[in-house]
Amino acid sequence: MAVYFVVLIAGAKSSSERILFLLVPVIEKIMALTSSQIKFSYGNCFLCRKYITFYWQKRKLTENSSIRVRFAPSPTGFMHLGGLRTALFNKLFAVKYSGKFILRIEDTDKSRVQPYAKEDIIESLHWCGLTPDESPLAGGNYGSYIQSERRSLYSLIAQKLIDEGFAYRCFCSLERLNVLRSEQIRRNEPQRYDNRCRNLSQREVAENLAASLPYTIRFKTDDSPINVNDIVYGSSTFNSLNSDGDFIIMKSDGMPVYHLANVIDDHYMEISHVIRGVEWLNSTPKHLLLYKALNWSPPQFAHLPLLLSSSGGKLSKRSPEFSLVGRVRSLRKAGYLPSAVLSWLTSTGGGLSHDDNFSCKQIRDLEFSELVSRFELSNVSRHNAQLSVDMLKTCGQLHFDKAINNALDYCLTHQKQNKLATYKTPQILNTIKEYLQSNVENLSISISHSAQDDLDMLKRLHLLKGRVQCLNDLINSDNGFLFIWKSPDLVTFEHKIASSNFIKLTLQDMLKIFSCFIEEVDFILRNERLKNNIDVTSETITTCLQNVSQRSGVKQNIVMHLIRLGLTGHEVGSPVVELIQLLTIPKAANRISKLYGFLSRSCASESNEAL
């Protein structure tokens, strides 16, 4: 069972208390198995009353309690961007004040739970580096961290509220509630429960229970105004007359609604600050009423503004950018660096302090540790945050370039100082190599982790500065970078040559151009005796291409088109000199050599057919 039983047993002062807590798991198991048929009575069970009273005493917030925050998503689908931002702000706050960041899975609404969702939430947090200190995976002293496994605790608290007069059983059928709602709409009245079952006598309640009538449990409200103090939105007063009336805290299936489970878990997990979306601000008065009834000190609240689409509307599946950025898995699939995503979210949601030497534009380039040092809940804007995909791309480009620069400096330093024994492949290279292996079939490069191979790869990536926003840009054939990792298909080359409106060359002309290119490259490599073949200058490559044009007798622009098509599979794209630098000149020569062999065989085949 939950870890806290072990903790409490160890701290029990008497043998009777030890026996009590040894029996609690058995009681919980019985309640879990029978709760749908039998309503466990807290008021008539001394053991439960003893347990829950002792448990409250152990779990009350102390005056010197540390910072403890939680991210509490419902596993109803793939993790969305708004959830990631909430998790980020909780994590930033916890790290800044040396607190704990807790992941709690709120799965009490079984009809909406998706089997893949919990794993996706955990993987998304791990991908972004927002690792929880306590979670279903990591465990902790305040578990279980899955609400459906805490069901018996909710039942005990609900029964306590009934016994102390703060709640009651409601036997109203769904049909009656629908009729009530329809009538209120017809009369243009507020839609709220009319509290009919609040005044049922004990005899009526007993008769209904004996008849096995289904019931919910409702919490009693009054007309008193409720004041909510929020770190972001300040002080607000809510009028109970505009509320839902006596609201449900336990459903007829014995599962708690969000309000009750949330309050109970936040209390027992000693949450000091509740940082969540502003959509829950209107529910906070209900939570404060529950805290007051249970004589618990509420945590501090900080509600985050909504995350809107670029058009200013709700970020939904109908939003044009939802497929690109609406879910965390979409960002992962596109290959955005986690640091870029986190900077983007903070730059759109506020929370960072500014000074005269720090501009909003600089936020886009900050690493997590820098975000932590500048983060303050009081700086979170009250205005809804409007997404900008262009800003995400800017963050992506800045963080990619920064990561490549840092990795290149690291590799060069180890090489110059001859520290190869302590060399480790930089994380950005591991990430890129894993992405290439997962997304590109038939890679034409070897994925190794030697210092020299890493350095060669980093020098090539450095040439792409300012042009890569996410890892998908490295393999997207539209932007022309896929050729670096994958050789174009030889048969496709032949078809493109045949359909080209620009390259009108005979087979012999193409063979001549390729032969001259191979010879020129061989001359460069033999005469310059290059140790690091990626460092061929652009001037040297330009001279090479000019010589190919002169020797073959073909115009230079035609030569460029043919070489580009042979190297990349595209007639248009980046300058050929740059393409050769990205490939390295030996690899470029190797591709042209394969094409030369392919065309030579085609030429021989045509000759044989002519005979």
UniProtKB/TrEMBL annotation:
Enzyme class: ligase
Reaction it catalyzes: tRNA(Glu) + L-glutamate + ATP = L-glutamyl-tRNA(Glu) + AMP + diphosphate; tRNA(Gln) + L-glutamate + ATP = L-glutamyl-tRNA(Gln) + AMP + diphosphate; tRNA(Glx) + L-glutamate + ATP = L-glutamyl-tRNA(Glx) + AMP + diphosphate
Compartments in which it is found: Mitochondrion
Ranges where the Aminoacyl-tRNA synthetase class I anticodon-binding domain occurs: 452-594
Enzyme Commission number, as recorded: 6.1.1.17, 6.1.1.24
GO cellular component, as recorded: mitochondrion
Nucleotidyltransferase found in the keyword field: no
Keyword check for Amino-acid biosynthesis: no
Molecular function terms from GO: ATP binding; glutamate-tRNA ligase activity; glutamate-tRNA(Gln) ligase activity; tRNA binding; zinc ion binding
Main location: mitochondrion
Leader peptide range in chain numbering: none
Domain Glutamyl/glutaminyl-tRNA synthetase class Ib catalytic span(s) in chain numbering: 67-359
Gene Ontology terms describing biological process: glutamyl-tRNA aminoacylation
Source domain of life: Eukaryota
Keywords: Aminoacyl-tRNA synthetase, ATP-binding, Ligase, Nucleotide-binding, Protein biosynthesis
Family membership: Belongs to the class-I aminoacyl-tRNA synthetase family. Glutamate--tRNA ligase type 1 subfamily.
Protein name per UniProt: Nondiscriminating glutamyl-tRNA synthetase EARS2, mitochondrial
Source organism: Schistosoma mekongi (Parasitic worm)
Lineage: Eukaryota, Metazoa, Spiralia, Lophotrochozoa, Platyhelminthes
